[in-house]
Write a structure and sequence with these properties.
Number of helices: 3
Distance between the termini: 104 Å
Structural class: mainly alpha
Strand order of the largest sheet: 1-2
Oligomer: single chain
Number of domains: 1
Radius of gyration: 43 Å
Length: 120
């Protein structure tokens, strides 16, 4: 493109100049659309990757929560708690005493109740 390109453009007819201008504008719009499309595609791919990572993390956390609930269930089961209590030296009560306090300063009375635990 030497200095004579402007003279060549002025020498063209109006229709030729309009066609050249339309081609230039169309090319610029096409390039802009391609850039936008590539930007959107790249962003979509990145967001898809993040979503996959979050899905995997969600699955891991759900598994961990389920394992924790299972451990809590096993630890607080009646049999496990009774076994731990026996290892610590506790045993079922043979007799339970209740302290009954009457209102207005009446003397306290204790009542006893024997317990028999049936083992099956």
């Amino acid at each position: 493109m030497g200095p004579g390109w402007w003279r060549k453009v002025r020498a063209l007819s109006v229709n030729d100049r309009q066609a050249a201008a339309m081609a230039t504008v169309s090319g610029a719009v096409l390039v802009a659309l391609i850039v936008v499309w590539l930007t959107v595609s790249t962003r979509t791919a990145l967001l898809n990757q993040q979503l996959d990572e979050l899905d995997a993390k969600h699955a891991r956390l759900t598994d961990e929560i389920n394992r924790t609930w299972m451990e809590i269930g096993e630890t607080t089961s009646l049999r496990a708690m009774e076994d731990r209590a026996r290892r610590l030296g506790f045993q079922p009560a043979e007799r339970i005493e209740y302290l009954v306090i009457a209102p207005e300063g009446t003397p306290a009375v204790t009542a006893t109740h024997s317990t028999r635990v049936r083992r099956e």
